[in-house]
Amino acid sequence: MSDVIAITCSLGTLSKNFNSPLPPPLIHQLSSAYVDAVERAGGIALLLPSSCNPAMVEEALSRVDGLLLPGGGDLDPTLYGQRPVRELDFVQPHYDAFELAAVRVALSAQMPVLGICRGMQVLNVALGGSLYQDLEKNGYLAHQLSMFPREAVTHRVKLLGKSRLAEAVGTQDLGVNSFHHQGICRLASGLIETAWSQDGVIEAFELPGNHFMMGVQWHPECMSDSTAQQNVFGAFLKACSGACAP
Fold this sequence. Notes:
By secondary structure, the protein is an alpha/beta fold. The chain has helices at about 30-40, 55-60, 95-110, 120-125, 165-170, 225-240; strands at about 5-10, 10-15, 25-30, 45-50, 65-70, 115, 130, 155-160, 175, 185, 190-195, 200-205, 215. It contains six helices and 13 strands. Helix 3 links the parallel strand 5 and strand 6. The two termini are about 25 Å apart.
């Protein structure tokens, strides 16, 4: 039986409302690339609509085998003790609260978790870490490289040799895409850095031990032609099947 992976969905609006005079309705949204990546790895994707009801989040996650936190917008900086800066993008406090609640439930249940881009940042904040609200403002190179196709390699990262991530992708030097302007500032206690960009930005982390928790700052779901990138999802699904090695 295939493992079921919950993927959180953010709230958005329809870009075109068929000439209706009414305000566009809110929709739950998620790129289909995440669903495709989970299915290629042998899992079943279950889209989890955002809800701030803790009981609903707990009930929903009790029915799945793993949690995937996708990319998306910026987190509210007050969650990690900072005041907003001018470069901060649009935030959704409702979505932040929902994903943070989901992480707490997953941690309590020792459920495997994979965080991608924003999802990696959510994991760090949930565990007590902080973020750079804008990397360039803090002296780093531009990482919001949206002018390139989503599957294009735009820079390389160095991986920690003895890590789940390096074992999964089979290399310590990996080409990645890049669509973020925020990044990890203070890494949460208990996590270990497992990948870095040339300018020193933390590009991946994981939780050591038996509980599979991994965050990557790039978007492997968009690089389906790369076996190494798809292997990130393969390692995640393997953990969800209970076959994750310490």
